[in-house]
Amino acid sequence: MNEQTKVTDATPIKTLPDAQTVLDVEHYTDRLFRFRVTRPPTLRFRSGEFVMIGLMGDPDPKTGRQKPLLRAYSIASPSWDDELEFYSIKVQDGPLTSKLQHIKKGDEIILRPKPVGTLVHDALLPGKRLWFFSTGTGFAPFASLLRDPQTYEDYDQVIVTHTCREAAELTYSKNLIQHLHEDEMMQELLGDGLKKLVYYPTTTREDSPKMGRITDLLENGTLFKDLGIDGISAETDRAMVCGSMGLNLDIKRILEGHGLREGANSEPAEYVVEKAFVG
Ligand SMILES: Cc1cc2nc3c(=O)[nH]c(=O)nc-3n(C[C@H](O)[C@H](O)[C@H](O)COP(=O)(O)OP(=O)(O)OC[C@H]3O[C@@H](n4cnc5c(N)ncnc54)[C@H](O)[C@@H]3O)c2cc1C
Is 135 close to ligand 1, i.e. is its CB under 6 Å away? Predict the structure, then answer.
């Protein structure tokens, strides 16, 4: 059992198994927040992968024993970062996030250091233009990939779409893109950044400069018209998709209509998909 033990004076105090310390928490809305934790020195991962994280569950009423309550989370920070960042939903009656939303600096979370996932560069064949299609917290793996220099070294252009119900739910992605455009190190990679990294946020409920489901905007050609491009082709375009089951299925259908095939770590192809959550 991988339990860590802290010794203070005479009394040993057990911390959580695979414990990491919370360094920073930022809340965006009553449904969304992000937090940063320490990174286990031995943890290696590829930008875009996910791990299991969580907290101890409530004590069993009969035995008093507590079991870890773990959920899959995309690592939102890039592989080079010394710390780990996560971007999270708050489900009010959700077993984990009803508690996780209250974490603060200095608290501990559990992190199982076994990263996996298909939203990685290795699962795509070389291409010229890379699309990231996301809804809600599905932006998290792209927050990692967008901060990874390989993304800009491998592609001429990167287009990231993020769709949420309300404008405030776009704050995390908007801040991150703005930071990338302003970052001196990134400016070298981005060149004329406004063309190389394109951000296309849309809302489905609240009024915003661009409204609509990304699938509709793709199918009726609005997206291509707005970006001044001809369309998607299997020769040049690669895509990563992370959203609800419905969004993933719809985008898969659209991409396959353009001739792209689904890839995997074992067999790279033109696009890859991962669920942002189960349900
Ligand atoms: C591969 C993978 C990666 C994931 N990465 C993230 C991530 O980076 N950030 C994150 O917040 N969640 C992520 N999730 C979802 C996460 O695992 C949990 O479901 C979420 O934290 C809620 O946990 P819970 O115990 O509070 O509620 P759960 O019992 O897990 O979920 C309750 C219900 O809430 C809804 N729900 C759960 N998660 C979300 C979500 N993210 N967005 C909208 N509705 C949701 C679903 O309807 C679900 O049935 C990921 C899931 C998978 C499969």
Answer: no
